[in-house]
Amino acid sequence: MCIETDLVQANPGTPKVSAPHSRGTVEHVILVSGTALVGPAEAPLTMRPGDYLCYPGDAPHTFDAQDEGTAAVLISELR
Questions:
Q1: How far is 62 from 66, CA to CA, in rounded Å?
Q2: Phi-psi region of 9 (alpha: psi -120 to 50; beta: other; left: phi over 0)
Q3: Which of 2, 46, 55, 77 is 20 to 30 A from residue 21's alpha carbon, by CA?
Q4: By the 8 A CB rule, do 20 and 58 touch?
Q5: SS3 state of residue 23
Q6: In angstroms, rounded to a whole number, what is the distance separating the alpha carbons of residues 65 and 46?
Q7: How far is CA 63 from CA 1, 4, 42, 43, in A?
Q8: Three-class SS of residue 10?
Q9: 34 close to 71: Cβ distance less than 8 angstroms
Q10: What single-letter DSSP state applies at residue 53?
């Protein structure tokens, strides 16, 4: 297993839609600022600062900033 940590910074506009990663990948998101729709592409959840979400990264998923200056910590468990 490999762990990747990223700071995601985004503004409203085109959502970031990610293709599935390798089988068994899990992603964890902690929203730092702003508001975003995050998670499985077919059913993203609204996140606000301090919210945590975990979802399968081996299916299509999205990060769609709703506010200027939206930021999140993304931790990916790649298998």
A1: 13
A2: beta
A3: 46
A4: yes
A5: coil
A6: 10
A7: 23, 17, 12, 11
A8: strand
A9: yes
A10: E
Tokens at 62, concatenated: 């999205």
Angstrom distance (rounded) from CA 57 to CA 50: 21
Cα dihedral 63, 66, 70, 72 sign: negative
Look up residue 73 and give its DSSP letter. E
Each residue of 14-57: pLDDT tens digit?
Answer: 899 999 999 999 999 999 999 999 999 999 999 999 999 999 99
> What's the DSSP call for residue 24?
T
pTM for this predicted structure: 0.93
